[in-house]
Design a protein that fits this description.
The protein is an alpha+beta fold. It has a single domain, classed as Chorismate lyase (3-Layer(aba) Sandwich). It has five helices and six strands; from the N terminus they run αβαββααβββα. Strands 1-2-3-6-5-4 form a six-stranded antiparallel β-sheet. The radius of gyration is 17 Å and the shape is globular.
């Protein structure tokens, strides 16, 4: 998936660094409850990364409230450069025990971990957001500035098994690798 494309673009192996991983339940706050610090919504978001609200995750992935999920936040690196940050929600009851084990114990990229259980494809982009690099906000050499944010649904057949939000960083565009058009 994204890792293979990045390796081709960068002309170098891409490594994954899992920054946060937690198995839990998709908890959807009731309408009358407000979500503050320590609320159940915090459990439905990957650490330090803006993700979709839990009710939107449930809608896109066809999940019931309380569904077993894994929340993941990773950095993808080409050499020492961080080129992408990604957050994901994976429906644990829709993947094999072997896939759950790989996701819980290794830094294997999400696409590769899920591909072992049968074809996974990106069937829908929930959103794609180009990002302007504002010089007043970002210093000229800020390689960590986002340039594109993509939110995609991962499916096996017609069944959603994951939702991933990838933030492509300026460092990806600043790489010296030669790219074919």
């Amino acid at each position: 998936m994204a890792t293979g494309v990045l390796e081709e673009w960068c002309g170098a192996p891409v490594t994954v660094e899992v920054r946060h991983r937690a198995d839990g339940r998709l908890l959807i706050p009731s309408a009358e409850r407000t979500c503050g610090r320590g609320s159940t919504q915090a459990e439905a978001q990957a650490e330090g990364d803006a993700f979709l609200p839990p009710e939107r995750v449930a809608e896109l992935m066809w999940l019931s409230p309380g569904a077993r999920v894994q929340f993941r936040t990773v950095h993808l690196r080409a050499g020492t450069d961080k080129v992408v940050t990604a957050s994901a929600v994976v429906a644990l009851d829709r993947i094999s025990p072997e896939e759950r084990s790989v996701l819980s114990t290794t830094d294997t990229p999400l696409g590769r971990a899920l591909a072992a259980g049968g074809g996974v494809r990106r069937v829908m982009v929930a959103s794609s957001e180009p990002t302007r690099l504002e010089p007043a906000v970002r210093p000229p050499g800020d390689t960590g500035a986002p340039v594109l944010i993509v939110t995609a649904l991962l499916c096996r057949g017609t069944v959603p098994i994951g939702l991933v939000r990838e933030t492509f960083l300026r460092s990806l565009l600043d790489r010296d690798a030669v790219h074919d058009a």
